[in-house]
Amino acid sequence: MSSSSPSGSGGDDLSERRGIPAAKFIQDVETYLSQSGFDSNSALAFHQERLQQYKVVEMKLLAQQRDLQAKIPDIEKCLEVVATLEARKGTGESLLADFEVSEGIYSRACIEDTDSVCLWLGANVMLEYSCEEATALLKNNLENAKASLEVLVADLQFLRDQVTVTQVTIARIYNYDVHQRRVKQVTPTAIAAADA
């Protein structure tokens, strides 16, 4: 959000949460406009631009949230598979599994006793780990994903609060501008009526 902030907008100093600037509630629009040097149209344009920036950030955060919400069940499934493999280790039982080779293409495998598993790390990289290492890695990834999701949810709530404050500010500035225009229209009419 690279817009320059108008000075003297009233309220607390501008703060932020993880790069998202906080919106200030404007108590007195007239004071805000006189201190910032904006006219009503410029102030409306500034706050509408800020609102659009918030909306763009919200779309990005929602996409990240969807990705994390899809990633967490995948990690949990992987943990279950590794736990199943570890539980069957040494029993002599083989495990029959269907796995996805490509989108919509599956193959069946018979998994004998195994001491290691291969995990996709991303970017077309797969590494072989012992079952214990894989469990530790997956648990760590699961904890990190859940923590990231919590932070993301808090960021989204903060962002929604800023959107609400900005929308209220836009409405207050707009209403102030309408009121000022009506006062200017009434004043010449009242003077003409008084002269008659």
Automatic annotation (TrEMBL):
<keyword id="KW-0143">Chaperone</keyword>
<dbReference type="GO" id="GO:0006457">
    <property type="term" value="P:protein folding"/>
</dbReference>
<dbReference type="GO" id="GO:0005737">
    <property type="term" value="C:cytoplasm"/>
</dbReference>
<protein>
    <recommendedName>
        <fullName>Prefoldin subunit 3</fullName>
    </recommendedName>
</protein>
<dbReference type="GO" id="GO:0016272">
    <property type="term" value="C:prefoldin complex"/>
</dbReference>
<dbReference type="GO" id="GO:0009409">
    <property type="term" value="P:response to cold"/>
</dbReference>
<dbReference type="InterPro" id="IPR009053">
    <property type="entry name" value="Prefoldin"/>
</dbReference>
<comment type="subunit">
    <text>Heterohexamer of two PFD-alpha type and four PFD-beta type subunits.</text>
</comment>
<comment type="function">
    <text>Binds specifically to cytosolic chaperonin (c-CPN) and transfers target proteins to it. Binds to nascent polypeptide chain and promotes folding in an environment in which there are many competing pathways for nonnative proteins.</text>
</comment>
<dbReference type="InterPro" id="IPR016655">
    <property type="entry name" value="PFD3"/>
</dbReference>
<comment type="similarity">
    <text>Belongs to the prefoldin subunit alpha family.</text>
</comment>
<dbReference type="Pfam" id="PF02996">
    <property type="entry name" value="Prefoldin"/>
</dbReference>
<dbReference type="InterPro" id="IPR004127">
    <property type="entry name" value="Prefoldin_subunit_alpha"/>
</dbReference>
